Structures are given as C-alpha cells and as structure tokens.
Amino acid sequence: MYKGIFVTATDTEVGKTYVSCKIAEALKSLNINVGVFKPVSTGDRNDAKELINSSQIKESAEKVTPVFFKNPMSPYGASLIENKRFNFKKVYSHFEYFLNKYGFTIVEGVGGVLVPLKRNFFVVNLIKKFNLPTLVVARDNLGTINHTLLTIEQLKKELSYKNNQKILGIVLNGNKNKDDISSKTNATLIKRITKLNVLSLGCNEKIDLRKNKWIIG
C-alpha cells in the first residue's frame, strides 16, 4: 500500500472532495489509519470539514488546510487581491506532519492541474513536489474525454515518475443527467486511449477498495 495519494481533477467542482471522502470512508472500513490533507482552499474551508468528517480524525480544519484565502478564485489570484503571500513552508511542514502521523494520507488539490498557486507554480508542480501517486477525478458527462486527456497529458509531461510518482488512474464522478448518452461510453473510451485504470462512480456509490486496489496500491 502507498503512503498516500494526491487527488487532482480536470476542473473545479467535479467531485475531488466527494471522491476523497469516499476513499477515506472505504479505508476506515478496512481499519486503516487514514489522514486527510488539503494544502490550500479559497472561499471557505468546507472541503476540509467534509474530509475530517469522513476520515473521523481529530484535526482542525486549519490543520488540514493550512493555507486559506477568503476570495473564491485561484490561490494566485486571491493572493494578489488580498496582498497575502502563499505560505509554502507551512504547506510542506503540514504535509510531513500528516504523512508521518497517518498510515495513509489522502491529499486533495485545488481545482485542476494548471491552477496557479503563485506565478509559474501550479498544482501539477505541487504534485511533483509531494511525490505521491496521482488520482484524477473527472466528470462523467459530455466533454469529459477532452478535459481528461488534456489533464493526463499535462501530468505525463510534468511528472518525473520517480519512486511511487505515477498516475494511478481516473475516477469518473456520477452523471446525474439521464439524457447524456456520452456516459455510456466515456469510461471505455478513456480507458482505451489512456491505458489507465478507470472507475465509474455512481451517485452516492461506495468505493470498493478490494475491487479497486489500484487506488491505494
């Protein structure tokens, strides 16, 4: 089993927190000591609260998400408006704290892989710095193939694939639009093109880690 994973996405509001919570709940059911960490959040710390609730850990939202900006936008944009620097030192120290304290740590990113944290430093650079295997969350609807392939391509371009740093696979988050016929083939096509593991997660569906062991190693 890996020491942890980094959960990223093709865009914002595609279900990173939802999927991270489902993985945390699955790990808890297997009696695995799971920690959760979201380095940065903007607008509010609700994601951190949901992660804490799912993992049942006794940590504060401020500990789980050490860097916070009030404005709901990219961290770099918010830092300029709020005249507040992104505290990378705090991020790295908190990351080490969770990695050392818990048997498995789920790290959730912010937005997609090219969201800027500061000028010329993006989420994908943070993924590379953390050196954790990466899980990509995508919408299971029309247009997801393009967004998913672009995200995978960027990750392949930037990651070094040293040690355990690799793309684990893709979770397609449930499509609530019954008229969207694309969801019938999205998973199959993405799997054929990327040759990666793909899990289609239905609405309110649990993640079976015994059937999807590739998620945790």
What do you see in this structure?
The chain is of the alpha/beta class. The protein has one domain: Rossmann fold (3-Layer(aba) Sandwich), CATH 3.40.50. Helices cover 38% and strands 20% of the residues. The protein has helices spanning 16-29, 46-55, 61-64, 75-82, 88-101, 123-130, 144-158, 186-194; strands at residues 4-9, 34-37, 40-42, 67-69, 104-108, 116-118, 121-122, 134-139, 167-173, 197-201. The longest helix has 15 residues, at 144-158. The protein is globular.
List keywords for this structure.
217 residues, alpha/beta, Rossmann fold, two-stranded parallel ribbon, 8 helices, 38% helix
Quick structural gist:
The chain is an alpha/beta fold. It is 38% helix and 20% strand.
The first-to-last residue Cα distance is 4 Å
Q: How many β-strands, per DSSP?
A: 10
- Amount of helix: 25-40%
Written as H for each helix and E for each strand, in order along the chain, the element string is EHEEHHEHHEEEHEHEHE
Estimated radius of gyration: 16 Å
User: What number of domains?
Assistant: 1
Separate helix tally: 8
- Low-pLDDT segments: none
Structural class: alpha/beta
Widest β-sheet, arrangement of strands: 2-5-1-8-9-10
* Proportion of residues in extended strands: 15-25%
CATH superfamily: P-loop containing nucleotide triphosphate hydrolases
CATH A-level architecture? 3-Layer(aba) Sandwich
Using the alpha-carbon principal axes, give the shape.
globular
Could you describe the largest sheet, including whether it forms a barrel?
Answer: 6 strands, parallel
Mean pLDDT: 95
Query: What is CATH's topology name?
Result: Rossmann fold
